[in-house]
Amino acid sequence: KNEVEQSPQNLTAQEGEFITINCSYSVGISALHWLQQHPGGGIVSLFMLSSGKKKHGRLIATINIQEKHSSLHITASHPRDSAVYICAGRAIFGNEKLTFGTGTRLTIIP
Amino acid sequence: GAVVSQHPSRVICKSGTSVKIECRSLDFQATTMFWYRQFPKKSLMLMATSNEGSKATYEQGVEKDKFLINHASLTLSTLTVTSAHPEDSSFYICSAADGAYGYTFGSGTRLTVV
């Protein structure tokens, strides 16, 4: 069992739909990161969360520390949102290592 | 925001040669740099953690003599794939930890060994 699990693995939706990607973790973490990887491979850090909720444009990320669960939401989805979304937990102790989820491949159809 | 510049973005090399990949933090000091490898449609696999001025820490199963990491300054870390073989073909990406921005990733290097 992975220490960080994401669902769904693949998600296809119509443009404009509200998107939710879930992340559950079984290890203690100091922060939870949401990353976006585009087809070319480059990775962009979207959010770093240790509690509560953050919003940036059409993206919203939430985390429930007690339930060890985080969600990434995309409102009014657009084809340019098509990418792989990865959640990653940052270790509490040690050298700032990240433990990655397996990623969610999102495809938004026009 | 923080930027990590990674070069080259693509490289094709002959089997047996060495390839150097550079990651530079452009507007912050990266005490720690992480090097990852990614296979197609798979998640990132941590290869090693490099700390400025000291030896890199390699993950289990990663050959340190094959994947040489140097972190000579607070803004530059390099990964050299020595005596490359076709099975080394992969996507390599670096990231730097920065307290203000979390983690900043390079744009990745697609290595093809022929």
Produce a short descriptive summary:
The complex is a heterodimer of chains A (110) and B (114). Chain A has 110 residues and is mostly beta strands.
The termini of chain A sit apart by 36 Å
Number of strands of chain B: 11
| Tally of contiguous helical segments of chain B | 0
The rounded Rg of chain A comes to 13 Å
Category by helix and strand content of chain B: mainly beta
Mean pLDDT of chain B: 91
Rounded mean pLDDT score of chain A: 92
How do the SSEs of chain A run, as a string of H and E? Answer: EEEEEEEEEEE
Distance between the termini of chain B: 37 Å
SSE string of chain B, helices as H and strands as E? EEEEEEEEEEE
Q: Could you describe the largest sheet of chain A, including whether it forms a barrel?
A: 6 strands, mixed
The percent range for helix content of chain A is under 10%
| Share of residues in strands of chain A | over 45%
The main β sheet of chain B shows up as:
7 strands, mixed
- The poorly predicted ranges of chain A are none
The chain-level structural class of chain A is: mainly beta
Identify the biggest protein-protein contact and residues per side: A-B, 19 and 22 residues
Description:
The complex is a heterodimer of chains A (110) and B (114). By secondary structure, chain A is mostly beta strands. Helix content of chain A is 0%, strand content 61%. Chain A is built from no helices and eleven strands. Chain A has strands at residues 4-7, 10-14, 19-25, 29-37, 43-49, 52-56, 59-64, 69-74, 83-91, 98-100, 104-109. In chain A, strands 2, 4, 5, 9, 10 and 11 form a six-stranded mixed β-sheet that branches. In chain A, β7 (59-64) and β8 (69-74) form a beta hairpin. Chain A starts with a strand and ends with a strand. With 114 residues, chain B is mostly beta strands. In chain B, 0% of the residues lie in helices and 55% in strands. Chain B has no helices and eleven strands. In chain B, the strands form two sheets. In chain B, strands 2, 4, 5, 6, 9, 10 and 11 form a seven-stranded mixed β-sheet that branches. Chain B has a four-stranded antiparallel β-sheet with strand order 1-3-8-7, with no helix packed on it. In chain B, a hairpin with a 5-residue loop joins β5 (44-51) and β6 (57-58). The model of chain B has no long low-confidence stretch (mean pLDDT 91). Chains A and B meet through β4 and β5 of A and β4, β5, β9 and β10 of B.
